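Need residues for this backbone.
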């Protein structure tokens, strides 16, 4: 728990902390891990926890990125040493992260957020259930994915008007990621190489100085359940 010297928690949130309070540590130190009983992350927006204006602005920017509306300012929501981890990508700095967001329009015709539900509003962690609709560019198919989005907050900006993210996880299954094996190797390879070979817009090159920022080896867990440091949480 946070000490009594910390500012009061955000509206309808808690002062619970999950991660180190040292902002100089790279993103790998700020991974939220959990297993869900069913893997059903269908959001109910009517039950969403309220957020302070600064936190709401952060979530709005992240949702806009999912909707293929990347800007330099929105990518600045991440620290230079951030980590992004989902089913297909493991990007471990902001340069690679920018490459991912700006590459989405090359793969998808459109993307639309169909709603979200904030389920965790702790001092250094925001989590929301998110339903996203993706329409592919080449094949005429639309996919709808429900996932749990975990935003681990940068200790240095938690109390500012522009809160930044150390670790962004998008978890679409009941089990968490083990971060090892062939799947994890492919995710890392994909993030490393997309930014190398894509036709990079100037907006991506704006983050070139972040290459390799604060990098550490990705944490591995052997498995994605509670035996792999991913306790069961009905979020």
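Answer:
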């Amino acid at each position: 728990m946070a000490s009594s010297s910390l500012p009061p928690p955000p509206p309808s949130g808690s002062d619970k902390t999950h991660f180190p309070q040292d902002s100089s540590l790279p993103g790998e130190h700020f991974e939220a891990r959990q297993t869900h009983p069913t893997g059903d992350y269908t959001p109910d927006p009517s039950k969403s926890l309220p957020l302070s204006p600064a936190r709401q602005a952060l979530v709005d920017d992240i949702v806009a990125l999912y909707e293929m509306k990347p800007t330099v300012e929105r990518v600045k929501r991440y620290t230079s040493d951030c980590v992004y981890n989902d089913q297909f990508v493991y990007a471990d700095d902001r340069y690679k992260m920018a490459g991912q967001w700006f590459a989405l329009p090359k793969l998808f015709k459109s993307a639309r957020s169909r709603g979200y539900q904030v389920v965790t509003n702790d001092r250094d962690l925001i989590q929301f259930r998110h339903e996203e609709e993706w329409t592919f560019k080449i094949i005429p198919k639309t996919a709808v994915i429900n996932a749990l989005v975990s935003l681990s907050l940068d200790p240095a900006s938690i109390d500012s008007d522009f809160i930044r993210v150390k670790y962004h996880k998008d978890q679409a299954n009941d089990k968490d990621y083990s971060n090892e094996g062939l799947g994890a190797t492919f995710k890392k390879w994909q993030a490393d190489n997309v930014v190398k070979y894509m036709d990079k817009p100037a907006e991506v090159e704006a983050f070139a100085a972040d290459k390799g920022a604060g990098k550490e080896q990705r944490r591995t867990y052997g498995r994605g359940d509670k035996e792999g440091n991913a306790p069961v949480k009905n979020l």
